[in-house]
Specification:
The structure holds two protein chains of two kinds.
Chain A (H helix, E strand, L loop, with lengths): L8 E4 L5 E6 L11 E6 L6 E4 L13 E6 L2 E6 L8 E8 L5 E3 L3 E5 L1
Parallel strand pairs in A: 1-9
Antiparallel strand pairs in A: 2-6, 3-4, 3-7, 5-6, 7-8, 7-9
Chain B lengths: L2 E5 L3 E2 L5 E8 L8 E8 L6 E6 L5 E3 L7 E6 L4 E6 L8 E10 L3 E6 L3 E5 L2
Parallel strand pairs in B: 2-11
Antiparallel strand pairs in B: 1-3, 3-8, 4-5, 4-9, 5-6, 7-8, 9-10, 9-11
Classes of the chains: A mainly beta, B mainly beta.
């Protein structure tokens, strides 16, 4: 049960878009539409941003969007804002009643 | 508003058992379709799912930790607990508890603030 692979960091200027990838296998990301994304700002608890690959919980701006192709899920942040600077982690059901998280990505707003 | 709060010792000696409790307020742990989970994050590393428990008694664990972990619940106190035995320095981490929706899909929300547990003599 290996962690899902995410780039360690991505960056962008205010107003730009950034995309974070989350690569797994056909046993987790590719096999189920149970991918969720979490934002973690320094000192804060993780916050659910996306669930079911591309659904946003109430209160999450529509600048955040999710997608999936094959074994890779992606989180896109459009119209990047200073407040978006945080760590982002993906999570997927991995079969056999288990769940696996990604390695985490630090988003920097230049 | 549902809130979760972790509590327990911040320092545990190697080979001993780590014990944490997650107190739930603003809602009941006896809620259909909602599990209650533990997740940890070693310093500078990613999140790791430890396991989740359902009020009916179903419990599922991360296979890599299964031999050392036990999650239990106390519905009368509306809290659930984590025990991790034979700890080593590799178990040093921030430990989070979270409500885990698991019913045809799944996600973790909300989370507790987390508690840092250091394994050291």
């Amino acid at each position: 049960q290996s962690a899902l692979t995410q780039p360690p960091s991505v960056s962008g200027s205010p107003g730009q878009s950034v995309t974070i990838s989350c690569t797994g296998t056909s046993s987790d990301v590719g096999g189920y539409n149970y991918v969720s994304w979490y934002q973690q700002q320094p000192g804060n608890a993780p916050k659910l941003m996306i669930y079911d690959v591309n659904k946003r919980p109430s209160g999450v701006p529509d600048r955040f969007s999710g997608s999936k192709s094959g074994n890779t899920a992606s989180l896109t942040i459009s119209g990047l804002q200073a407040d978006d600077e945080a760590d982002y982690s993906c999570c997927s059901f991995a079969g056999n009643y288990t769940w696996v998280f990604g390695s985490g990505t630090k988003v920097t707003v230049l | 508003q549902l809130q979760l709060q972790e509590s327990g010792p911040g320092l545990v000696k190697p080979s001993e058992t780590l014990s944490l409790t997650c107190s739930v307020s603003g809602g009941s742990i006896n809620t259909p379709n909602y599990y209650w989970g533990w997740i940890r994050q070693p310093p500078g590393k990613g999140l790791e799912w430890i396991g989740s428990i359902y009020y009916s008694g179903s419990i599922y664990y991360n296979r890599s930790l299964k031999s050392r972990v036990a999650i239990s619940e106390d519905t009368s106190k509306n809290h659930f607990s984590l025990k991790l035995s034979s700890v080593t320095a590799a178990d040093t981490a921030i430990y989070f508890c979270a409500r885990h929706f698991w019913g045809g899909t799944g996600w973790f929300d909300p989370w507790g603030q987390g508690t840092l547990v250091t394994v050291s003599s």
